[in-house]
Amino acid sequence: MQPVLDIKLFKKEIFMLRDLLNEQVVAINQKAKNWEEAIRIAGSILVNTGKCKESYIEAMIDVVKTYGPYIVIEDGIAMPHAKSSLDVNEDGLAIVTLKKPVDFHNRDFENVSVLFAICATNPDAHLNFLQELSGIFETENLVEQMCSCKEKKEIIKIIEENIAKSKGESECVL
Questions:
Q1: CB-based contacts of 31: which residues, under 8 Å, 6+ apart?
Q2: Which of 147, 159, 158 is closest to 113 using CA atoms?
Q3: What span, in angstroms and rounded, lies between the C-alpha atoms of 7 and 11?
Q4: What is the CATH number of the domain that holds 62?
Q5: 3-state class (DSSP) for residue 53
Q6: Is residue 108 assigned to a domain?
Q7: Which pLDDT value is given to residue 4?
Q8: How far apart are CA 92 and CA 45, in angstroms?
Q9: Transport: is it a keyword of this entry (predicted)?
Q10: Domain that holds residue 64
Q11: Is the torsion defined by CA of 154, 113, 54, 160 positive or negative?
Q12: Residue 174: predicted pLDDT
């Protein structure tokens, strides 16, 4: 009889986001004229860290042009991404804070100052990113905290603390 759930795999997926956090994936106080440029900044981090090909940046922009600004998921926060494809080399994350907010033309949320761009090798990894990040996005004053950071390590600390906090609040015993 085979095990129903591989615990090692499960644990790896839970901590996938934390595993991707390092100073190479963070850019602070960036200047962007518009939402497309903001996505390009985040996408260039994914490309420069070898996570995806340049074509993935265009795919993220095309998603917004095709489906609208649904990637703006909270006041001040956008999560650019595109479909898992051959353009993705490995799961990746890019975190960008902007010097001035940009308008994604989303009627429900304020202009964006923080971007969490993701690329995933498969839809399951994509969903894991969404699940982990959703707990972070509930943090009060997250955008203000992140935009006030002067160093990349401060951003990482905020994210790690909020990952831990969201896991503690949502932890359950089976």
A1: 98, 99, 100
A2: 147
A3: 6
A4: 3.40.930.10
A5: coil
A6: yes
A7: 43
A8: 9
A9: yes
A10: 7-169
A11: positive
A12: 39
Task: Say whether pTM exceeds 0.70.
Answer: yes
Q: Give the C-alpha separation, 129 to 125, whole Å.
A: 6
**Is 119:56 a contact under the CB 8 Å cutoff?**
yes
Taking CA atoms, 157 is separated from 21, 93, 122, 137, 162, in Å, by 10, 15, 27, 15, 8
Which two structure tokens, joined as six digits, stand for 35?
A: 């939402």
Q: Are 38 and 78 in contact (CB under 8 A)?
A: yes
The first and second tokens of residue 166, run together, are 């969201």
Does the structure show a pLDDT above 90 at 14?
Answer: no
Is the pLDDT at 164 greater than 70, yes or no?
yes
In a domain, 121, yes or no: yes
Rounded mean pLDDT of the chain? 86
Rounded Cα gap, residues 167 and 170, in angstroms: 5
